[in-house]
Automatic annotation (TrEMBL):
<dbReference type="InterPro" id="IPR045865">
    <property type="entry name" value="ACT-like_dom_sf"/>
</dbReference>
<keyword id="KW-0963">Cytoplasm</keyword>
<dbReference type="InterPro" id="IPR001086">
    <property type="entry name" value="Preph_deHydtase"/>
</dbReference>
<feature type="site" description="Essential for prephenate dehydratase activity">
    <location>
        <position position="281"/>
    </location>
</feature>
<keyword id="KW-0413">Isomerase</keyword>
<dbReference type="GO" id="GO:0046417">
    <property type="term" value="P:chorismate metabolic process"/>
</dbReference>
<dbReference type="GO" id="GO:0004664">
    <property type="term" value="F:prephenate dehydratase activity"/>
</dbReference>
<comment type="pathway">
    <text>Metabolic intermediate biosynthesis; prephenate biosynthesis; prephenate from chorismate: step 1/1.</text>
</comment>
<dbReference type="Pfam" id="PF00800">
    <property type="entry name" value="PDT"/>
</dbReference>
<feature type="domain" description="ACT">
    <location>
        <begin position="300"/>
        <end position="375"/>
    </location>
</feature>
<comment type="function">
    <text>Catalyzes the Claisen rearrangement of chorismate to prephenate and the decarboxylation/dehydration of prephenate to phenylpyruvate.</text>
</comment>
<feature type="domain" description="Prephenate dehydratase">
    <location>
        <begin position="111"/>
        <end position="288"/>
    </location>
</feature>
<keyword id="KW-0456">Lyase</keyword>
<dbReference type="GO" id="GO:0005737">
    <property type="term" value="C:cytoplasm"/>
</dbReference>
<keyword id="KW-0057">Aromatic amino acid biosynthesis</keyword>
<dbReference type="GO" id="GO:0004106">
    <property type="term" value="F:chorismate mutase activity"/>
</dbReference>
<comment type="pathway">
    <text>Amino-acid biosynthesis; L-phenylalanine biosynthesis; phenylpyruvate from prephenate: step 1/1.</text>
</comment>
Amino acid sequence: MTDLSALREEIDAIDQQIVTLYEKRMAVCEEVAEYKIQTGKKVFDKEREDAKIATLTAMTHSSFNGHAVEELFRQIMSISRKRQYQLLTREGVIGRLSFTQVEEIERENVRVVFQGVEGAYAQAAMKAYFGDKVSSFAVAKWRDALEAIAEGMADFAVLPIENSTAGFVSEIYDLLMKYDDYIVGEQIIRVEHVLLGLPGAKLSGIRTVYSHEQGLMQCEEFLNGHRDWQQEAVDNTAMAAKKVAKEQDASQAAIASAFAGEVFGLEILKEHISTSAGNSTRFIIVSNQRIFQKDANKISICFEAPHRSGALYNILSHFIYNNLNMSKIESRPIPERNWEYRFFVDVEGNLNDSAVKNALRGITEEAANVKILGNYYGGNV
Ligand SMILES: C=C(O[C@@H]1C=C(C(=O)O)C=C[C@H]1O)C(=O)O
């Protein structure tokens, strides 16, 4: 048996050759980048890469090695592309992004739409973000809010995207892909649910509780203590309060804010019913304009990764190679395409940063249906 140290010496010699050859290959790729800068040719050439993989895997002597060589070379070529994007950015030939920088997002004398009725948490988020000098109106569905800005009826919409207890609001993600609307800001507010009933109603007399399904989820522990209550989801927590006030049935209660209770003349039957004391919701401010505030520090993008092993890794590696911090990733099924997903990613940065331009250029060329959802000032990046 050959001695381990002798084998390792042999490996060391081979690895040194690999590194030398890798650097030699990269130097040629830099020349390719030069050619592409001069001619305007795209960095990513899928046909060339696929042909190369076919040739190289055919040289191997086992299927194990065939897979390994494919993986290795997909990686090498992906690294080569990232280097080329860097050089293109340095030469200033990365195309302009279709977003316009503004000093500030306008917060006065604008028209804002939110979903629900007066007393909704979205209204509280709107007031926290815009203050009081706006004209606002409420719509029944989230979709209606996005439509209102797409059609120019409102300048901004305020929509809940994530709750600290119940997680992300999947429907908003799906809607953001349907409409030509963009995120320009975010606002996090504390969500302190209370149980509301008619004046004089008793906790012991409650039979049905209404709320938004997120409200029900966020108070799951409290509701587990009242398993005989029927839980009914409606479109919004404040709408639940409105319904209880309107129907005048003392066996009905709503989970909503104390403010919604005041608006509809209801009484607080129980306070502090959220499972998590710090229960908070992150709202996004959405516009039909592709604008970003000068000091924006968070970018949200969406893309579809090809249905191939390692595809998501290769796309995300554009962030790694550009030193960008990814703060969040979510996935949603693509409608009509079973078991295929689109990914929603938040990264720290500003569209003016060359590292950001570089990463986005790579992702735009390599992933399908990329949408930059927005660049905005994020409170908790
Ligand atoms: C180097 C090139 O750019 C990219 C990288 C490749 C590689 O590293 O082999 C191949 C094709 C392109 O996607 C090229 O176009 O030849």
